[in-house]
Amino acid sequence: MEINEAIADSLAPNAAAIKNARGVVLKRKLVGLFRSADGTLLFGDCKGSGAENYRPSADFADPSKPVFRCTCPSRQFPCKHSLALLYAHAQGGKFVEKEVPADISEKRTKIQARVEKKKVDADKPRQVNTSALKKKIQTQLTGLDLLESLVTDLTRAGLGTLNAKSARQIEEQAKQLGNSYLPGAQNALHALTGLFYRSEISSEDELKASERERIYSAALDQLNRLHSLCKQGRKYLQTRLDDPELKPETETDIAAWLGHAWQLRELKDAGLVQNNVELLQLAFNSHDDWTRKELVETGVWLNLQSGALQLTRNYRPYQAAKFIREDDSCFHIVVTPELCVYPGNMNPRVRWEAMEPRPITKADHLRAREFAKTDLKTVIKDVKSQLKSPLGDRHPFALIRYRALGKAGDCPVIEDPNGDRLALTDSTRESEPATLHLLSILPPAIRRDQVMLVRFHHDLDSQKLHAKPLSVVRINSGIRQRSPPSFNCRQQPCCGRFSFEKTRPASRTSWRESPCFRAGRQSHQRSCQREGSPVRC
User: Fold this and answer.
1) The whole model's pTM is what?
2) Which of 131, 149, 322, 343 shows a CA-CA span of 20 to 30 A to 53?
3) Which has more confidence, 76 or 380?
4) What is the CA radius of gyration of the chain?
């Protein structure tokens, strides 16, 4: 397996681990670098704070599931010492061939035994404790009764009576939903009450009158979602109560709304799995969802076999965030033998257990262009169908091939081959940075006959459908646009990709000039200064 710095970055649990691992290499704390005869194991000795050297290793016996080990006391995997081995290898460090240590050989044997046992267990039929399941469903139905009561009271009293104090009182009552195995319903209620106060850490909790007027449309939409959740959830749970052997619903995502945590085995048993899939990431974003008390990282991927746009979501609760691996942008093709697809509509969530990276090629961008939609009317029809579903995603993604990118008055638009136009705006989520101003620095070649990834947004007040530009794909490169608090604008050496990407907080902000961006450098600096984004040139 080829190991470069991009792959090492993708294996790191967070930004601090990347910074610290590079520091280990720069400070020359790796006093011994070794590799196995077949090249599947990198190991060595590293100076640490203890009396004895640490013994880190990186085991690629299964390239899709690398195993990292170290004798240091760190609770992160991989730790900075194991990551340092990868950076040293990527930077051309000299690794001496050496026999695999006995303790690692023994651990490899145990891992292989666990893999074989897992295969045997996977073939065994799964036993369902029907009595426990019935008891859980009864508790969930009781929780839905509470949620329906809260929604009914809100409807009768009117949203005008809801303020920061009453919203927090409702949230206190809603804690019972978590005890009723309904975390999804609890999060949906928090999304409503969270509209009526600033944040959990704000000293000015109450919204002003002008601010309250702006959120009523969103509050009504969320109230409608809660009503539909009560109605559809009760019907679904009653059906399962009558037949406990019935599998969770796979045609819709009602099970996830009620808090069902899908296991990979469940998805495989339900036939929601695709084999030998290649994925190209088109966009990535991370945001702080303080109503859920979680950090949420979302990747938008193009399935190069089916052409579907699929999502990866990584949820990191505040209390456990530092112990959960942080997702980041991916600048290589992900090749996975099994891709598990969650129930969903336009952009279903996906997960995989094992993957191998490979470089992006021109053929991959050509395939992306082939999968792009050329008729805006068809795209908008699909989006409207999604938005009509009360429990559907309110911000669906679409990959559109446009004939021209320009302006209609002061509004940026894209035009399809049929002459239909779609307005581009920055109106999606408040927690996300603006990208529209970055269109002005794109090279002229990008303005005609290219492919753009957009996220749709339905303005409930004006009843208009808008789209936010996220990335552009052309034949031999991709442009991913971002202007977040940490700004990085770089040319990818692997495929000539120019990207505007959100980087991890500890990453260094940099600019590598290219001919396409040199002409717009000053304009770009002025735009970033207006947006408050730090830039180093």
Assistant:
1) 0.78
2) 322
3) 380
4) 25
Q: Are 450 and 405 in contact (CB under 8 A)?
A: yes
175's tokens: 């804690």
pLDDT tens-digit series, residues 237-255: 999 888 888 888 888 889 8
Q: Is the dihedral of CA 237, 243, 248, 249 positive or negative?
A: negative
452 near 469, Cβ under 8 Å?
yes
Question: For every residue of 188-201, which 3-state class applies, written as one string?
Answer: HHHHHHHHHECCCC
Distance of alpha carbon 179 from alpha carbon 2, whole angstroms: 48
**Runs of H (alpha helix) within 91-208:** 102-123, 130-157, 164-179, 183-193
Question: What's the distance, CA 119 to chain centroid?
Answer: 29
Inter-residue contact 328 to 365 (CB < 8 Å): no
Q: What are the tens digits of pLDDT across the range 30-67?
A: 988 999 988 889 999 999 887 889 999 999 988 888 89
Which SS3 state, helix, strand or coil, does residue 312 take? Answer: strand
User: Which among 336, 328, 262, 247 is positioned nearest to 295, based on CA atoms?
Assistant: 328
Decide if 393 contacts 383 (C-beta within 8 A).
no
> Cα–Cα distances in Å, from 353 out to 100, 164, 338, 340?
26, 43, 8, 9
Q: Are 397 and 300 in contact (CB under 8 A)?
A: yes
- Return the beta strands (E) in 446-497 as ranges: 448-459, 464-474, 477-480, 487-491
Phi, psi of 176 (to 5 degrees): -65, -25
Under DSSP, is residue 392 helix (H, G, I), strand (E, B) or coil? coil
Closest Cα to residue 371, out of 276, 420, 301?
A: 301
Whether 524 has a pLDDT exceeding 70, the answer reads no
255 alpha-carbon distance from chain centroid: 20
Task: Indicate the length of the chain as a whole number.
Answer: 537
Q: Which helix (H) or strand (E) holds 41?
A: strand 41-46
Instruction: State pLDDT tens for residues 153-182.
Output: 888 888 888 888 888 888 888 888 888 888
The b/e string for 502-523 (b: 16+ C-beta within 10 A; e otherwise) is bbbeebeeebeeeebbeeeeee
At 418, list the tokens: 């049929």
Is the distance from CB of 6 to CB of 329 less than 8 angstroms? Answer: no
User: Which residues are bridge partners to 138 per DSSP?
Assistant: none
> CA dist 468 to 10, 414, 499, Å?
27, 11, 16
Nearest to residue 390, comparing CAs of 222, 193, 216, 192?
222
Q: What is the distance, to the nearest Å, from the Cα of residue 314 to the centroid of all Cα atoms in its chain?
A: 5
Tens-place pLDDT, residues 486-500: 333 333 333 333 343
CA–CA gap between residue 12 and residue 77 (Å, rounded): 8
Strand partners, 356: 335
Distance of alpha carbon 275 from alpha carbon 356, whole angstroms: 14
Q: What is the pLDDT of residue 497?
A: 36
